[in-house]
Amino acid sequence: MNRQAIILTNQPNQSFQITLEINGVNTTFQFAIRWNPVAGYWVMTIRGMATGEVLVDSIPLVTGGGNLTLNILRPYDYLNIGKAYLISKVSYPKSEYPKEDNMNEFVLVWEDND
């Protein structure tokens, strides 16, 4: 099982390109991470770099709560782009899921489809 960490910051509108190894194949994506002030949580959009096509849009970046992990890409298993988990990287984050000012306390972990 291949796991890769994607480091996020508190910057309100992040956009970056990243190459992830998914099932032994390097795949490049364009990520957009933004704070949704109305909903009160971060959302993520992923585009395939090869086509520019939006693969997933406005996925809430939330944890499973407590010690649980939540595959935030589970509804998109059919895309075969892997699994993603938002996990706290500090012992005592300011909140159970990232707020506007503490996204840097969490890491997005990408995992193969195994």
Present the secondary structure layout:
Blueprint (H helix, E strand, L loop, with lengths): L2 E5 L5 E10 L2 E12 L4 E8 L5 E7 L22 E6 L17 E6 L3
Antiparallel strand pairs: 1-7, 2-3, 3-4, 4-5, 6-7
Summed up, what is this model?
The chain has 114 residues and is mainly beta. The protein has strands at residues 3-7, 13-22, 25-36, 41-48, 54-60, 83-88, 106-111.
Order of neighbouring strands in the sheet with most strands: 2-3-4-5
Termini distance?
Answer: 7 Å
Average the pLDDT over all residues and give the rounded result.
90
- Give the tally of β-strands: 7
Radius of gyration, CA atoms, in whole angstroms: 14 Å
Major sheet details: 4 strands, antiparallel
Which residue ranges are poorly predicted, with pLDDT under 50 across at least 5 consecutive positions? none
Number of helices: 0
Proportion in helices: under 10%
- Identify the overall geometry: globular
Order of helices and strands: EEEEEEE
* Strand percent estimate: over 45%
- Secondary structure class reads mainly beta
Number of structurally distinct domains: 1
